[in-house]
Amino acid sequence: MLIGAVADDLTGATDLALMLAAGGMRTIQVMGVPDDAHRLEDFDAVVVALKSRTIPAAEAVSLSVAAARALRAAGCRQLIFKYCSTFDSTDEGNIGPVTDALMAETGAAVTIACPAFPTNGRTIYMGHLFVGQQPLAESPMRDHPLTPMRDSNLVRVLQRQTASKVGLIPFPVVHQGAAAIRTAIAAAARSGERMLIVDAITDRDLREIGTAVADMPLITGGSGIAIGLADNFARAGLLAPSPPPRTIKAPPGRAAIVAGSCSQATRTQVKTAIEAGLPALRIEPQALADGRQTVEAVLDWAAEQDPLHPILVYSSDEPEAVRDVQSVLGRAQAGELVERSLAAIGMGLVEAGVTRLIVAGGETSGAVVGALGVAMLEIGPEIDPGVPWTRALDGRDLVLALKSGNFGAPDFFIKAWDRLA
Ligand SMILES: Nc1ncnc2c1ncn2[C@@H]1O[C@H](COP(=O)(O)OP(=O)(O)O)[C@@H](O)[C@H]1O
Ligand SMILES: O=C(O)[C@@H](O)C(=O)COP(=O)(O)O
C-alpha cells in the first residue's frame, strides 16, 4: 500500500477515493477502522471512511489514530487526513485536534492543510477559502445545519482549533512551483509553524504542491490535494498506474435516492428531479418527532410506486426551515432524528429490492451505509466531479453513489443511472 487515508465522512472518502483511482491507483474504501478481516495490502491506496466530522474532538482523535495505525501496520507510506473542501468543522474541532494527533502518530514535524478543489469551485487565496465566486463565510456554507462556516480565513479557523502554530504558504510562492513551495515549507517549519494552509487556485497549483510534499509522512486537505500524489509514486518506480474504472456492474433491481443534505446543490437536484417527474416524498423532522410521519408509512409509499422509475425520499430544506426545526428540536437532535429515520428508510428500501441507491449528504451517507452494514466499497466511474458509483464488496449486492451535499450538476439524480452497466 502506498497511500492510506483517513476521511472524516463517507462522501468525502468516496471523493478522495475517486481522485486516487483517477490518478491510476487501485483504490478501495473501507467503512470504519479496518480490522484483520480487511485485506488492505492488495491495493495501492486505501481510504478509511469515518463519521468523525461533528462528533466530540476526543472521539474523532481516537478513531482517526486507530485508523492511521491500521493503515500504517498494513504498510502505507504516506498518510492523508481528508476533510471537507469547505473546511467543515466547529471551533472545538475536529480538523486541528485530529491533525495534531496524526502528526504525533507519524512523527511529522510539519504538515500542510489544503482543502482546495478547483474543479468544484473551491480555491484558496492568501489563506481565504472561496466557494465559487464567494468567500466561504458568504457562501451557502454559512447556513450548514451542523457546521456553519462564518470565517473565510482558514489560518484563523484552524488556529482556533489547535495549540500548534498555523502558517500560510501564499499564492505567490505556490505559483513559483514545487521547489519554492518545498523551500517555504522548510522555512516555516524552522520558524516553529506546524500546520500550513497552502493557497491553490488551479489544478496546476495542486500538482506543484503534490510534488513538493512527496516526502511528507502526513498531508491534510480535500480530495484535490491527491491530484499530484500518484505521479510521485510512479516517478519513484513504486506505482504502475492502472486505468481508472470506466464502468461498474450493477445488479438488477429498483433504484432510489435518499437525500438528507440541505446544501444548495442537493436542494437544486431535488427540485430538478421533482420537476422531471420522479416520484418524491418529503420527510419533515417535526412530523417525525411527533409521530405524524413514520418510516413504515414512507416504505409503504415507496412500495406503491412504479418499480421502473427511481424514487426520491428527501428531507432537504431551506435554511430558514432548518433553523425553525432546530430551534424546537435542537441542532444535533434534529440532525440525529433525520439521520436515524433516513437510515431506516434506506435499509427498508434495500430490503424491498432496491439495489441501486444514491444517498445525498455526508452524515446521511454515514448513517445509511452504517445501517446497511456495508464494510468495503469498490470505486467505480465518476458521475460528476467528486462523486463516483461504488459497489458493496461484502454482504449485499448493491451499487451506491454517496453524493457530497454540495457536489453534482442539477440533473445528477436523473443522469447518474446512465453510468451503470
Ligand atoms: N429538514 C431538516 N431539518 C434539520 N436538519 C436536517 C434536515 N434535513 C437533514 N438534516 C440534517 O442535516 C445534516 C446534513 O448533513 P449531511 O448529510 O452531511 O449533508 P451535507 O453533505 O450537505 O453536509 C444531517 O445531520 C441531517 O440529518
Ligand atoms: O471535500 C468535499 O467537499 C467533500 O468530499 C466532502 O467532504 C463532502 O462532505 P459533505 O458536504 O458533508 O457531503
From TrEMBL:
Family assignment from sequence similarity: Belongs to the four-carbon acid sugar kinase family.
Lineage: Bacteria, Pseudomonadati, Pseudomonadota, Alphaproteobacteria, Hyphomicrobiales
Domain of life of the native organism: Bacteria
Enzyme class: transferase
Domain Four-carbon acid sugar kinase N-terminal: 3-228
Protein role: Catalyzes the ATP-dependent phosphorylation of 3-oxo-tetronate to 3-oxo-tetronate 4-phosphate.
Keywords: ATP-binding, Carbohydrate metabolism, Kinase, Nucleotide-binding, Transferase
Domain annotation Four-carbon acid sugar kinase nucleotide binding: ranges: 256-413
Transmembrane stretches, start-end: none
Reactions this protein catalyses: 3-dehydro-D-erythronate + ATP = 3-dehydro-4-O-phospho-D-erythronate + ADP + H(+); 3-dehydro-L-erythronate + ATP = 3-dehydro-4-O-phospho-L-erythronate + ADP + H(+)
The protein's Enzyme Commission number: 2.7.1.217
NCBIfam families linked: OxoTetrKin
Species assigned in the record: Tepidamorphus gemmatus
GO molecular-function terms, A-Z: ATP binding; kinase activity
UniProt keyword annotation of Chloroplast present: no
Name of this protein: 3-oxo-tetronate kinase
InterPro entries found in the cross-reference section: 4-carb_acid_sugar_kinase_N, 4-carb_acid_sugar_kinase_N_sf, NBD_C, NBD_C_sf, OtnK
